[in-house]
């Protein structure tokens, strides 16, 4: 006999994210989150991101239409 296992409701995967981001006080870092996300169950256009910042000195802007995080 054989058993087939179908992936259902798997969590999204974030891959290839930089380990460290270093930038100066007056510089900006753009991160395209669409390049980092993968979900076998959900198309990329239906995935959404949310953020919590514990250090209020870090300012960010998220453009959800293009999934770009600007730090």
Account of the protein in words:
The protein is mainly β and about 70 residues long. It is about 0% helix and about 20% strand. It is built from no helices and five strands. The protein has strands at about 15, 30, 35-40, 60-65, 70. It has a three-stranded antiparallel sheet, with no helix packed on it. Strands 1-3 form a two-stranded antiparallel sheet. Strand 4 and strand 5 (about 70) form a beta hairpin. The protein is elongated, with a radius of gyration of 16 Å. The chain starts with 12 loop residues before the first strand and ends with a strand. The mean pLDDT is about 90.
Report Rg. Answer: 16 Å
Query: Using DSSP, what is the number of strands?
Result: 5
Q: Beta fraction of the residues? A: 15-25%
Order of helices and strands: EEEEE
What are its keywords?
three-stranded antiparallel sheet, 71 residues, elongated, mainly beta, two-stranded antiparallel ribbon, single chain
Describe the protein's topology.
Blueprint lengths: L12 E2 L15 E3 L4 E2 L22 E3 L4 E3 L1
Antiparallel strand pairs: 1-3, 2-5, 4-5
Task: Describe the structure concisely.
This protein has 71 residues and is mostly beta strands. It has strands spanning 13-14, 30-32, 37-38, 61-63, 68-70.
């Amino acid at each position: 006999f054989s058993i087939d296992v179908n992936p259902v409701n798997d969590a999204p995967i974030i891959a290839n994210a930089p380990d460290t981001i270093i930038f100066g006080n007056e510089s900006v870092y753009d991160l395209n989150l669409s390049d980092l996300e993968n979900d076998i169950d959900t198309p990329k256009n239906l995935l959404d991101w949310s953020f919590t910042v514990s250090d209020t000195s870090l300012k960010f802007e998220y453009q959800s239409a293009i999934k770009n995080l600007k730090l």
